[in-house]
Amino acid sequence: MSTSQIRIFDTTLRDGEQSPGASMTLAEKLRIAETLEQMGVDVIEAGFAIASNGDFDCVHKIALQVKNSIVASLARASLGDINRAAEAVKVAARPRIHTFIATSDLHMKWKLNMDRDAVIAAIDKSVSHARNLIDDIEWSAEDATRTDLDFLCRTVETAINAGATTINLPDTVGYTTPAEYGHMFRTVIERVPNSDKAIFSTHCHNDLGLAVANSLAGIEGGARQVECTINGIGERAGNCAMEEIVMALRTRGDVLPYHTNIVNEDIMRASKLVSTVTGFSVQNNKAIVGANAFAHESGIHQDGMLKNAETYEIMTPESVGVTKTSLVMGKHSGRAAFADKLKELGYELGDNAFQDCFRRFKEIGDRKKNIYDEDIVALVDDGLATSDNAIQLVSLNTYTSSDGKAVSDMTLSINDKENSVVVYGTGPVDAAFNAIKKLVGITPHLQLFQVHAVTQGTDAQAECTVRLEEDGRTVNGQGAHEDTVTAAARAYVSAVNKLMVKREKMSLPAAE
Ligand code: KIV
Ligand code: ZN
């Protein structure tokens, strides 16, 4: 590895999933892991194996699937955690255990109830144990930025002596500033005698909106790995956004002479996937991936852009995978053209999923004159969210009136058996959701209902997200359709299917 290479450690599936409401299914995590690997991520933190049997299963399956990237599982400094993490990742082509303990006086006193010597002993024991199981060990000093610098140096030296190959110094609470964070890395790397035996890593939270700036300062201070998430999702205000740090390094190579392995043209696809799966929409003015990130509204800017795009554009939309909205094809387009389009958009579907999407593409073509790339993406995402589900929406007829009353006449197929109801509601979406609840016999709490138009025009497909909660379990469902109420119902049905799977898993005996 050249000294100017920055490893990208993506923690969308672990720290990202810790955002309230961002729960993802195994299939969704596998899709995200596949995308991360394709885009050149060096390390994928797949989860926290000890957290539950479901989390263990996800880390294990990702470890089996991923071939090029390192796959890491998080573990606290306890032997049980570390054994479980090792068990989950040992099947990976390149496994890593990421173990951590808090090092600030505040955390040691109030959270761990341990003194400094006890923490040093715990680091030695946990890292040595992990290193006996797996060769690639990352150790993190939780709350490093509020840790006494002399003590931080002692902890780092201990971790490296015990076998850690990567040292992460997180800004756990998003408190530091760029100058302070850069100084911390410089000091630790200079003072710790064995610091040349490890790669140093940043991990910045965004509570003060400084996560990317702090990560860049960490790199300038000597870090060669950056921990980040797609769209910056994560605990509280989130983590350093991968798309921002990658494009900052790429665009400002003149003052930041570093490079990453990331295929930046894949950024938009990854962003869209993560926002669809989590239901966390990206704000319009978000850097790099926001809908307005490359839009030029004012006359002066537009004039400049027409004369020379560089007047107002520091990077091209194409460089992050934003393509001009293109008219795709009509209802007469054949299977081969559709397959080519899917490939161009980065999808590789199995036979059944392909047939299903092609059928829906034809149906949309019958109803809608213009079909755009975004329509195809929405229908593939919808297909992946709804195919193979035990509960399927068969038909929905809605009757509405301007006084707000609505009636939903719905048929669902539940385990291959069709059932119908006619139900009232306040507005058509409420009526449709009531119909599903009645047919399935559940009353989950609706945490989020979100609608987004996939393209422009009144015949645009609506893409809906529904977040449901039941007994502390949260799921997100997605659905797309030209009829907004049908899209909403499809999203609700997709979420209900996920709830049912979670219920089943909870009622199974715990794995050994
Ligand atoms: O923010 C943090 O400190 C973390 C550690 C577990 C690495 O996420
Ligand atoms: Zn974190």
From the 3D structure, determine the CATH topology of the largest domain.
Answer: TIM Barrel
**CATH H-level homologous superfamily name of the largest domain:** Aldolase class I
Q: What would the principal axes of the Cα set say about the shape?
A: globular
In total, the number of domains comes to 4
Poorly predicted sequence stretches spanning 5 or more consecutive residues? 508-512
The DSSP helix count reads: 16
Strand content: 15-25%
Cofactors and ligands? 3-methyl-2-oxobutanoic acid, zinc ion
Question: How far is the first residue's CA from the last residue's CA?
Answer: 40 Å
Mean model confidence by pLDDT: 93
Assign the CATH architecture of the largest domain. Answer: Alpha-Beta Barrel
Gyration radius, in Å: 25 Å
The count of DSSP E runs of length 2 or more, i.e. the number of strands, is 16
Helix content: 40-55%
Largest sheet: 8 strands, parallel, barrel
The structure class reads alpha/beta
